[in-house]
Design a protein that fits this description.
The chain has about 150 residues and is mainly α. It has one domain (about 1-145). It starts with a helix and ends with a helix. The protein has 9 helices and no strands. It has helices at about 1-15, 15-40, 40-45, 55-75, 80-85, 85-95, 110-125, 130-140, 140-145. α2 (about 15-40) runs antiparallel to α4 (about 55-75) and α6 runs antiparallel to α7 (about 110-125). Pfam families: DoxX. Its main location: membrane. It is a multi-pass membrane protein.
């Protein structure tokens, strides 16, 4: 039994790029869904305590989450997708959610900080090997030089 487990573990150690890509895809989908929810019902956000004067900013945040999430999910311009969302998550973590305590229900500060850290990781390290960018880099002459 122990031998089987060590073989499986050794096999998975060689495939860490799959885990990195799955986290990137999940983060991208989650942020895209968040953006879609904000754009489809901004009045809900306003009813949560944000004034109507911030309606434009809420719409902008929704569009940034939607666009950045799609870029992250695809692994195409991943650093740009992460970079445009970092200021939003930073302000959500340290200014908007400052009244929230740790381990509370609903929108929690620890979840916002976790997403912020993941965005910083993808900004620094990029999309990884399982991405559209990596595919185009490997097949550059095949994709663009079909004559």
């Amino acid at each position: 039994m122990d031998n089987k487990l060590s073989k499986i573990t050794a096999s998975m150690n060689d495939k860490t790029n799959i885990g990195y890509a799955l986290i990137r895809v999940f983060l991208g989908i989650a942020l895209s869904v968040r953006g879609w929810l904000i754009l489809s019902n901004p009045d809900l956000i306003i009813r949560m305590g944000v004034g109507r004067e911030y309606y434009m900013w809420i719409s902008l945040i929704g569009m940034i989450h939607l666009l950045g999430g799609i870029l992250l999910c695809l692994g195409f311009f991943t650093r740009l997708g992460a970079l445009i969302q970092i200021p939003i998550l930073f302000s959500a973590s340290f200014f908007v959610l400052e009244h929230t305590k740790l381990m509370m229900g609903g929108q929690s500060v620890e979840l916002a900080i976790l997403v912020l850290v993941l965005l910083c990781i993808y900004f620094v390290f990029g999309s990884g090997t399982l991405s559209i960018r990596s595919y185009f880099a490997k097949n550059k002459h095949h994709v663009f030089n079909k004559t």
